[in-house]
Amino acid sequence: MNRLTASVSAAVVATGASLALLTPAAVGAAAPNTLEQVRAVHLGSNGPWFRLEDDPGNANIPPGTEEVSPFADPVRFNGSLHLAIGPGQKSQAAHPFPQLIPLSTIASSELSYDTFVRSSTSTNPPHAVGVGPNLQLPLLCQGVFTTLSFRPEDNTDAQGHPGVVPDTWQHFASSASSPWRTSQTVATFPAQSDNPLSDYVAACDAPGDGVFGVIANVGRLGAVNEALDTYVDNLTVNGTVYDFGVDGLATGLVTLRNTTPGGDCRPGRACRTAGVDHGSATGTVTFTDPADGPEYHAVGVRLVFSDGRALDPRDLKVTANGKPVKLTAGPGRTLVGVVAPVPSVNLAPNGTFTTPITISSNRGQHSTREGKGDSLTLKAELLARGYDPLQRTGVTADTTLHQ
Prior knowledge:
Layout: H1 4-15, E1 34-38, E2 50-51, E3 65-69, E4 80-85, E5 91-101, H2 103-107, E6 112-117, E7 134-141, E8 144-150, E9 170-173, E10 179-182, E11 194-196, H3 197-203, E12 210-218, E13 228-237, E14 240-244, E15 251-258, E16 271-272, E17 279-288, E18 300-306, E19 316-320, E20 323-324, E21 328-330, E22 334-339, E23 352-361, E24 375-384, E25 391-402
Parallel strand pairs: 1-14, 16-25
Antiparallel strand pairs: 2-5, 3-4, 4-13, 5-12, 6-9, 6-13, 7-8, 7-12, 8-10, 10-11, 13-14, 15-17, 17-23, 18-22, 18-24, 19-20, 19-23, 21-22, 24-25
């Protein structure tokens, strides 16, 4: 890393560019993290996030991919920052703070981020293995400019995985023992040495020392002919969580047709049945992704059934895609089932994901509570790959069958 952020910071001050959208928490404040959204319009020559090529000093460094992408993150599932490089390239997104912030202040708050490294079997060019995007702090230490880098390959993620696990979202957080690599020789630390952040805090305390900003970076690799494709999100620095994402989100719709004799499921009305001791319905659960929506990977559906009493799995039979769905007891006296298409499918912008379902209810014959519910509610939620397979996204739809 060169002096990109330092020069960008000077340019921001000189032009009076506004950083109101991404103002970091007050120095020394012990407040909860503040969420700040970063959209495509915020990444570029006008800031407040800057790409490698936005600094004229980097004219001789070929930039790779630096973009806000629809690739869904594992927290809000609304997109992420895409950083990728080919042979000899470098990619980064840098956000300068309005003023230098003491390293001690930065180190006293949460320092974390989420990373995803895409695997590849390509040999032209070959893809690097075991490395990921860095979280960087450009700063002055004893008056000397350097960059401190948190490297996934040198750390263990929050799920307990050492180093980089390809094709998996990982959450990395700096701890007391986490190594940070300095790009330059500062104080007593040789260039390219790894030291705990607390050691730098103790040494970088001269008047005028401080952190310029925060950077997500994919640097030139050891083998100059290698490539690397990564995603980054939820960078948390100085009390602010930077959420890279797109504007749209998927929506859901449950459509059912009552197949019970005498049933009524006309459009615009709740499904109703009368005079029978069982109920059945057939229909679909559909999730629709707008053109400006995220790209959800390896999707599925979570089905939650409730009717005001403790449902027994024997009282309900459900199929999805023509196959039985296993139901288990869930919170709040519900029954829960998960549908995972095989092979896996993705939900991309401008796309739909539809699951045909059937429901057959025995009207509480095995209920553990006296009395029969007069309705059955289905809540469906989109699942997608996050930190774990089939993680809940918060995109839901529901309907009620009145019996």
